[in-house]
Design brief:
alpha+beta, 3 helices, elongated, nine-stranded antiparallel sheet, 3 domains, seven-stranded antiparallel sheet, Jelly Rolls, Immunoglobulin-like
Length: about 450
């Protein structure tokens, strides 16, 4: 039996060497040595059969206890399992400090610095402003050349665009028609298609704040060639005023050879009829059978509003025999309740104005002009009227919208000629006033079909 037990212990030890851990093998080997020693002690202590039996039972119980103890110790001391190779440890998250750099998806470092506050954009500059208007120099004749200046500007323009425009008569640069091919040109040669019209130069200046457009003054009407008109009368005022033989009233004073001032008060009533007036009339300067043009410069120094029931005249061509005016220049408030320049004709529109200016009476020196056929021609042709060299459009009566009149006799009593009368004549409800006349000019109608321009320009005496 001892031999069997010894073999069993040997087999258990061998199994521990093959399959157990080193610690288990060591424990089993220790139990085997203890079992081998115990039979001898048991045999020595118990000689009887009963003792042998008890000893055997003790050995078996001891072997069983040792084997269970070894198994329990093996279970408690099993090493921690190794995580699978596919498992990855979770990354450790460290705090991100402002201003540090982190890698982006592409591997480049990306700053985490806090964004700075945006700088507000600078306000745009004010748009350019015209200080002096564009201007044109030269004579508007087909074949000649006009030169333009863009004027001066403030607010630092960074760009300029300009072109020439043309108006067939009375208009402003704003509603003129751009002349094709003139963009960016400072010079322009009038064409045959421009004859009778006026020309403007238009400039647009721009910067980051916007654009502003300015217009030159209009040229005189474009002509096809140098004017071939003949001067019929130069109204320069002489010391004795002998070139005005028909003087009526004494409320005038000569300021210079180019200026005659009329100061009209209620004492200027030569006819004692309640009308305030003074007249300076020329000799018979309009020859029969010849078309004529007349220009009258004037400066309305002090003129109150003319009552609608009254009239104010400052120039007329008249028939001395019939004591009638064929055409007349004056001021009226009839249409708008404010003073406006007017042109009227004997026998047209019941002798109310055929044309009035708009926007009141321009300040300073101005020139009103007219061209007509022979006064004794019953067709009564009016070729046109001009204000400061700009042809006007009739805006009252049956010819409204036209620049010419015809079909009525301006003067029809058979007079062979008529004088020019420059005056200051208020009637109806007369008003005191002050006006200065410049030198009136009368010419035959030349090839240009235009009235004569005063020597100092349209806005001069």
């Amino acid at each position: 039996m001892e031999i069997l037990l010894a073999r069993l212990a040997h087999m258990i030890a061998a199994a521990g060497l093959l399959f157990g851990s080193p610690a288990t093998t060591h424990k089993i080997d220790h139990a085997r040595r203890a079992s081998a020693a115990r039979p001898a002690r048991c045999a020595a202590s118990h000689g009887s059969k009963r003792g042998v039996h008890s000893c055997r039972k003790a050995r078996r119980r001891h072997a069983k206890d040792e084997s269970s103890k070894a198994a329990r110790q093996t279970t408690r001391r099993r090493p921690a399992p190794t995580p699978p190779k596919s498992a990855k440890s979770a990354p450790t998250t460290a705090p991100i400090l402002a201003g540090s750099a982190l890698p982006s998806a592409s591997g480049q470092l990306v700053s985490t610095a806090p964004p700075t506050a945006p700088v507000p954009p600078a306000p745009p500059p004010a748009p350019p402003a015209s200080v002096s208007a564009p201007s044109i120099s030269g004579t508007p004749i087909v074949g000649s050349t006009l030169q333009a200046s863009p004027g001066s500007w403030t607010n630092s323009p960074t760009s300029y665009t300009y072109h020439w425009s043309e108006c067939p008569g009375s208009c402003t640069g704003l509603n003129g028609l751009q002349i094709p091919g003139t963009t960016g040109q400072l010079a322009y040669a009038p064409q045959a298609s421009d004859v009778g019209g006026v020309i403007y130069f238009v400039v647009t200046a721009g910067n980051a704040g916007g654009e502003t457009t300015a217009y030159s003054a209009a040229t005189a009407g474009v002509t096809s060639s140098a004017d071939s008109s003949t001067l019929l009368y130069d109204g320069t005022f002489s010391g004795s005023e002998s070139n005005y033989p028909d003087v009526y009233g004494d409320c005038a004073s000569m300021l210079s050879s180019d200026e005659l001032e009329f100061t009209i008060t209620n004492g200027c009533n030569p006819g004692e009829d309640g009308h305030y007036r003074t007249d300076y009339a020329t000799p018979n300067i309009y020859p029969a059978g010849v078309p004529e043009c007349t220009s009258v410069p004037f400066d309305m120094v002090n003129l109150p509003t003319v009552p609608t029931s009254s009239w104010f005249g400052f120039a007329e061509a008249k028939d001395t025999a019939a004591n009638l005016a064929g055409w007349g220049f004056g001021v009226t408030s009839y249409y708008g309740g404010v003073n406006e320049l007017q042109v009227e004709f004997n026998g047209y529109n019941n002798t109310v104005p055929a044309w009035t200016s708009t926007g009141g009476v321009p300040a300073g020196w101005n020139t009103l002009s007219i061209c007509t056929n022979d006064a004794n021609d019953s067709s009564g042709v009016v070729y046109g009227i001009w204000l400061n060299g700009v042809r006007q459009t009739f805006n009252h009566g049956p010819a409204s919208g036209s620049q010419t009149l015809s079909g009525f006799a301006i003067i029809d009593d058979g007079a062979s000629s008529w004088p020019l009368d420059i005056n200051d004549y208020t009637g109806g409800s007369p008003v005191e006033n002050q006006i200065i006349h410049g030198d009136p000019l009368v010419t035959t109608t030349g090839s240009s079909g235009l009235p004569p321009e005063p020597g100092g320009g349209w806005n001069s005496p």
